[in-house]
Amino acid sequence: MEHFIVSARKYRPQTFKDVVGQQAITNTLLNAIDNNHLAQALLFTGPRGVGKTSCARILAKTINQDGNVHPDEDFAFNIFELDAASNNSVDDIRSLIDQVRIPPQVGKYKVYIIDEVHMLSQAAFNAFLKTLEEPPKHAIFILATTEKHKIIPTILSRCQIFDFKRITVTDAKNHLIKVANQEGITADEDALQIIAQKADGAMRDALSIFDRVVSFSGKNLTRQAVTENLNVLDYETYFKTTDLILQNNIPQLLLEFNDILSLGFDGHHFIAGLASHFRDLLVCQNPATINLLEVGEQTKSKYLEQSQKAPYDFLIKGIELANDCDLKYKTSRNQRLLVELCLMQLASVLLNRDGEKKNDQPYIIPPSYFKEKGIKAVKIQPEVKERATEKIEEKRATSLEHEVKKESTVSSHEESVEKIEEEESIPVKHTVESTKIAEPPVAIEKKPVLINKDRKTSGLSLSSIRKKKEHEEKKIDNIVDPKNLPMEAFEESAMQAAWIEYGKMQDKKGERIIGSMFAMNIPVMKEDKIHLELPNQSMKVDLENALPGLFQFLYKKLNNYSVELVITVNEEASKKYAFTPQDKYEKLREKNPLIDKLRSTFDLDL
Predict the structure, then answer these.
(1) What stretches of 150-282 adopt beta strand conformation (E)?
(2) pTM score
(3) How far is the CA of 324 from the CAs of 97, 268, 309, 328, 343, in angstroms?
């Protein structure tokens, strides 16, 4: 049995040209060597498996080469590697510093590669500072780490930092194709694509996965073998799921999800992959973003085909629903039900296009209004909403115009009746029913008209509304006889209770200022009149604006239509209100002087 060398070691880069996906850094290092502009302290940082240590070894070998040296010479005597994970004490660093002083026997430079440098202790970092800042001319330090944030700033400031990036899926796939060709392995492009995606930007991981899959499937590497061995959901699963969603086939969709779970896949992984699938379909719909799709040519054609079937708004909504399910998955108690609910919602998105339900808010008037009135709510379809609104507006304008004409006719008729009564001196008898006209007119309950609130218009001008109001007042003056209105006597307590009740009603309506005014200022009875004293003029103005509604309420509540209110302003009354803790204390002391004794006895403070 021959000794097997893993691909990660067998195909480790030997020159800067062999390094995958780090062209910017390798070109910078080559130019620095050519121009003799290389720093004596370098820091290579980045994710695992992207070539940090390999670039450090290549750099250490390259700087000692000249035209007379064989290219395969590795200058092992000039390269010193220190694993800081296991040699992280002060003594290890002091031993290293002692070796730095000795010049190289072969070549120009001695190169010290310290891997996982972030594992050094604080004392080791401090011992290393002076040597790192002013090393001998023949010494170059190359530090490598995956966690730059753990290195103290004094070390970072002494190094030239190179940030290694993750290797793209395309670069990793192309390198795997070269490795497969050299190993004599027939591999599908989609299979290598899946391996590159599974590696998540690390070339070493990609080569390790490649060895594992080759051991499983032999010399013929297929997409099915890769997905089976790596236990990942391939594209076909998401293509099939998306087709079921677009067909609104909820039963089959739930069965498909059950099959996925039975294969041992996690629901969280599935829903996250579905969101990514919707994203890939979305980028396929625009030629400018199609390059963001990192898949093989065969798979790309399938994405393009399915993206034509999936509408843009569906994909946006689908990504939103899947991402929301992804965020809630870990905190959910019933995770399977959460994913199934998400799939059912996705399958119901396109039902809106068939007219079953399109709008998230299908009611122009809230349904609670119809419930209170005992009327069945009516849905308005978006395509006919505007047409229906225009017709309703026309009908309202016509009916309002008709009412104005009718009222003008009635008023002229009433004036003629009054003239006849004056000429004949016939007394007009006012019944109790005529007093109802003094109350606000009762609206006839009709079936509510569904109108968009943002498009309310009126068919009348301001002058016509003013004339209508004057006509109503004139009609009330002509008909109502104050002698027939009830004028029952009432107690002061009943009046104050009605006053407070009206203030609470205003507070519930949202009139907080008026409500608080009624609660803070309670009137009293003097000479059969209601007297109210206010502390300032602004409160009087606010109260006068609310008088019409107040009087209508008091008339009915007290059954007395001769209620009079006298309002006076007393600036001194404002001092009665306690605004600070000291004011409140003084008010309490006026009512009960013993409070002052209580405070002094227990040495209390405000």
Answers:
(1) 160-163, 186-187, 220-221
(2) 0.52
(3) 55, 12, 24, 6, 12
